Amino acid sequence: MKYIIAFFAVVSVFSIVITVYDKLAAKSNSRRIPEKTLLLTGFFGGACAMFLTMITIRHKTRHMKFMVLLPLMSALHIALIIYFDYQQTIL
Predict the structure, then answer these.
(1) 23, 31, 47 from 26: Cα distances, Å
(2) How far apart are CA 72 and CA 87, in angstroms?
(3) Nearest-angstrom CA–CA distance, 80 and 32
(4) Is the CB of residue 54 less than 8 Å from the CB of residue 61?
(5) Rounded mean pLDDT of 28-42?
(6) Which of 24, 26, 27, 84 is the most exposed place for a label (fewest CB within 10 A)?
């Protein structure tokens, strides 16, 4: 279980970094992070951190796919953590 939590923590930190970078790049008209990359990072464990970061820095909050998919991915991640924790306590 600790490896799963560590994985989510690492991916979450990475997702925060690329979200903030994308916001700064948007302000300075620099090269942006593709939306596909942001969503894949969210899918692989950074959805909750990315969603909270986007709300905090007001980035991509008008994009419905981010405002819908990231909370759904977060719920899936929480459900998976609960499931794996439950499986570990049974064994």
Answers:
(1) 5, 8, 20
(2) 22
(3) 31
(4) yes
(5) 96
(6) 27
